[in-house]
Amino acid sequence: MIIKRRYGFSILFREILPPLIILTGWDCVVVILFQIFHQEWMEQPALPFSLMGSALAIFLGIRNNAAYARWWEGRTLWGSVTNNCRSFGREVDSLLGGAPELARAMAAYPYILKSSLSNNEPDAVIRTLLDEDTYSFVFSCGNPANALLYKLGQSVRHLVIERNIDGAVHGTVDRILSDLANAQGGLERIRNTPLPIQYSMLPNIVTHLFCILLPLSAVQTLGWITPLGSSIIGVLFQMLDRSGRNLQEPFRDSPHALPMLTISRTIERDLLQPLGETPHPMPTPRFGRVP
Amino acid sequence: MIIKRRYGFSILFREILPPLIILTGWDCVVVILFQIFHQEWMEQPALPFSLMGSALAIFLGIRNNAAYARWWEGRTLWGSVTNNCRSFGREVDSLLGGAPELARAMAAYPYILKSSLSNNEPDAVIRTLLDEDTYSFVFSCGNPANALLYKLGQSVRHLVIERNIDGAVHGTVDRILSDLANAQGGLERIRNTPLPIQYSMLPNIVTHLFCILLPLSAVQTLGWITPLGSSIIGVLFQMLDRSGRNLQEPFRDSPHALPMLTISRTIERDLLQPLGETPHPMPTPRFGRVP
Amino acid sequence: MIIKRRYGFSILFREILPPLIILTGWDCVVVILFQIFHQEWMEQPALPFSLMGSALAIFLGIRNNAAYARWWEGRTLWGSVTNNCRSFGREVDSLLGGAPELARAMAAYPYILKSSLSNNEPDAVIRTLLDEDTYSFVFSCGNPANALLYKLGQSVRHLVIERNIDGAVHGTVDRILSDLANAQGGLERIRNTPLPIQYSMLPNIVTHLFCILLPLSAVQTLGWITPLGSSIIGVLFQMLDRSGRNLQEPFRDSPHALPMLTISRTIERDLLQPLGETPHPMPTPRFGRVP
Amino acid sequence: MIIKRRYGFSILFREILPPLIILTGWDCVVVILFQIFHQEWMEQPALPFSLMGSALAIFLGIRNNAAYARWWEGRTLWGSVTNNCRSFGREVDSLLGGAPELARAMAAYPYILKSSLSNNEPDAVIRTLLDEDTYSFVFSCGNPANALLYKLGQSVRHLVIERNIDGAVHGTVDRILSDLANAQGGLERIRNTPLPIQYSMLPNIVTHLFCILLPLSAVQTLGWITPLGSSIIGVLFQMLDRSGRNLQEPFRDSPHALPMLTISRTIERDLLQPLGETPHPMPTPRFGRVP
Amino acid sequence: MIIKRRYGFSILFREILPPLIILTGWDCVVVILFQIFHQEWMEQPALPFSLMGSALAIFLGIRNNAAYARWWEGRTLWGSVTNNCRSFGREVDSLLGGAPELARAMAAYPYILKSSLSNNEPDAVIRTLLDEDTYSFVFSCGNPANALLYKLGQSVRHLVIERNIDGAVHGTVDRILSDLANAQGGLERIRNTPLPIQYSMLPNIVTHLFCILLPLSAVQTLGWITPLGSSIIGVLFQMLDRSGRNLQEPFRDSPHALPMLTISRTIERDLLQPLGETPHPMPTPRFGRVP
């Protein structure tokens, strides 16, 4: 995720560059053909063009709203993971009477979730937080994050029996694990369910079509400055389309992805610091990007 | 549900083909009639046409937003079924002290729900997960999924009495069943309550009317290239209308339906793997479609 | 609620007919006056008309969105009634150890709620589900549905004392009654709080004004075919206005009302079937309408 | 809150009258100046005017949506107060074994909340529902409604100790008080946080500017009938602006305010009737307004 | 946050002044160049300009809606902090039997949260509310607000053991701490996750571009009064852009920031008054601004 305006501008500009060059090239071709070999059939009237603009506006409006909502829901669910991991750490101490190995195992949870959401290899840090048994059990299952919650549930049970803890307290701690399961399920839902194909493909196709037809419609009135006017408009619509596409997959590796590593480190810090342990240092932003 | 862009394009194209052919045919008829037997009454001014476009935009905007919201709510509720089934599996182990037959019965729940939502025969897999008694009781009721939750409630009760488990723990486990009842009720609500007839029929009718009148309005200025311009616009609005209609019934068998079989298999896997049992394999996507 | 497209079309058409006839009549008057006694002052320019269209679009957009949200919230709250009645039935059996008379009394709850929401006489079916005492207590109160919840709370208390049930279990069952009170309160809120008068009256008035002025603006360019063009546009806007008005009162007796009888019957069935009792049969849809 | 259409119309008309008169006056001045002392600089082209209309539409759209959302959230939170007060009444009886003085004290809660939200003197009815001690403690605090919840919490504690009630039951009853605190906090949030000044002031200013410039733009084409056309449009936009402003402060004394007295009476009735006591009668609507 | 209209107007006007001066200057340059050295290439047609306006409207619409939603979500989460702090105060008394030092420590929580959200030095008031040990532990951690919740959890545990309090009651009190952790996590999420760079930068850039091109498009028809018309429109769009930017960072020090000091004082008052202690006085609004 980009957090610095300065870098953000240059990243956006680099994204815009290729379509800008292609668009300007096409605009020049049109304007030269029109001005030199004046072709009457190129004189396009404005009506169908503005209707096309309306259809495009509805498509882009719905798609970009939905894409932003997915991105923000993804961020909110990661926030819920953060909150519940912290509450688990607090409750292990205040309700169960303290169990550092449980808090440490929970610190591994966001790392496991992160790697399964982004289809990456599990982070090396996980091995330092889980004991050998838990590690091999968790990664033998199809869904390691869910398996860790299962394992944590069993460990809580052992503690409850060992220390003769009240059932209501046990239920309260287990509620946190259920809330984590809900947040995790929500994140997997966003990853597994792409935006309907109509909303992810059609705005893209219609935007390209629109940019191709744009100079044909503008060349009559704009004449030789068509490439300037037409490419400004074209780039604007390309950027609208692109901002929707960037947000619709919030876990894919891109400059606009959610900062899952930073969130995981925050959770680790908030779980380990009260135990007096030293967590891994926060990642440093590079070129305005938080990983 | 379509998850591959490549197949998605060909599926969308095949859906678009019939209206495209009809529209182009009609456009050609209009342009020929106009250019050859020039009929003055065919010269339609732009005003009523752009007003019609506004009305259509409001209709399509509200309808498509509502249809997308239904589809995404359906997906979210299936996500809630997933989360609560997993949590039930964890709690059976950590709160009730383990009961494989309960986890196995819960694995049948999504299959039963799936078949009642899509009005299909119950999946063969259900018989392998439920014992004979439960199977016949469940399918003797008008709402088998609800009957299974009822039965699971009774089994939990027997366990609680047998193993002398605390009331608060019992309440915590029962909360998961209530959450499942809530998700199930939400899914049935979406299936039983179609979008109001005004929003499901009128956009469709108005879009057709719009496409019929389109060439009449465009032929004056576009002349012989009317069929090209008019059919591009017409197909765009047809696709807008169709993307709304596709999403408004998320459980009906279509390329855009929710992947209920895949979700059921995921739940089965996450419930059976921690018990050391082998779940059914995940379905393979065919032509970019996840069933 | 209309669930069949075929009937839906004819119901919509019958609703549209009166305004269509009046509009066409007025359009004919305008066109005849204009073409025969050509009155110059009737030539209205397009600008104020398109501004009026913008204002109307904002009004209709906000109102129709709000009306649809009310309708869907009403449906969702009835869904919540369904879910919690079912969960109450399950918990009476699994947490309290079974009490058929409580499940039967709960089956009367949706019928009581339905009649108070639609200001009808209490359904005859209620008397068959409640015992004499409860019936007379409930209907002596100003809010019978709330009184039934109160009574059910007392019956649960007696059961808890009699069978020496744990306090946490008692709390879990009582939570369901609180959730029902929340859903009921939400339904009463929608019934008692109409859409603000500005949003329910102004779109209606502005739509009529718009339809009256429409032929004046169109007659110059459309000439003799004004009645056709103008009445198509007019009917579209009338239908937009009407679809909002139809949804804004989801409990009033109309073809678009929520199917409260069907929902009540479903709840009764899901509560009585597991007890081995026979519920009342589901109502049959007539002319595509579910009551 | 206005609930009768008939009165609603006359209230709206009276609100519209002053701007209508001023607008028409200004329109007449413009048309006379233009037609008699034809000033060329008054001929305003349409482009900047339609751009201004777009900016105004965005402002009014966002503001009116936000204002309606505030109003409906306020109503929903009052609904939540209603539900939780009722549930408290039920639980005092079914979970704590009955305590009429607690139900009576709770019946005072909505009256206290109402007067603090609308900055009025506390209602006389409060003194009849609270005992002397509670009354003086509650009104000695900066936030009387919060103080009453605090006091009720203490009374519940005494009951729990006296009657030796289970901790889980105590927790369930206390949950209702927390839910009331949440609803109360939400209502105070709406009262204390006005809509951002940009959204509450700018639409108002821009609407006035728009109405002043409107006849200048219309007079060229509309001529002598400018006052008619221009004031219809102007009043429409004034009403759009006003409907947003009316809803944005849902607790201020106005015909559009939430019916807080009626809601308080309903709560009182539903709490006192099951105890066999007679609540205060419901207020009668006057001129279609529910207080 | 500005709560007085009068001051609000002058603050808004001062914000608008710089762009207004620059815009008017540029408009004058354009009109002079055009009228005196009539340059034909400056005659810009309206089409590309109105397309640019559509793109800008979509950008501003989505961005301003998202910014307002962030601001209101921030306010709602602070509301949730208020409610849960109050409920904690009540429960310390009614569920745990009273512990003034816990209520006092909780009164420090909003101050700690406020300073970490706005990156300020911790408020001096915190030292007066926390004992020395808690103070040094809390500020030795990376996230002091979270550390305070952890510490409070431990203190509750000691009380529970000391006074032999039921596990269910302990769970109920701990639930409040979890709800506070959820609200705190939500606030940190809003602070740490800026609006996607596309939505925070592009509307700004496009608005500037739009304002630069505006007089070129208007000068043909407006002539010498271009600066008036063009700068009114320009300022409107600048204000739309600015109102979005103002709201998107609700914790940054600005006239539009959330009144976090006032909220913290309110919480302190509602926690300390029932204990008979005197809280710090509420801050006085200066120039219509609540800090």
From TrEMBL, chains A, B, C, D, E:
Entry-linked InterPro entries: YneE/VCCN1/2-like
This protein's UniProt keywords: Cell membrane, Ion transport, Membrane, Transmembrane, Transmembrane helix, Transport
Record-linked Pfam families: Bestrophin_2
Chain segments annotated as transmembrane: 20-38, 44-62
Membrane topology: Multi-pass membrane protein
Localization in the cell: Cell membrane
Broad class of the protein's primary localization: membrane
Superkingdom in the source lineage: Bacteria
Keyword Ion transport tagged: yes
Family to which the UniProt record says this protein belongs: Belongs to the anion channel-forming bestrophin (TC 1.A.46) family.
Protein name: Bestrophin
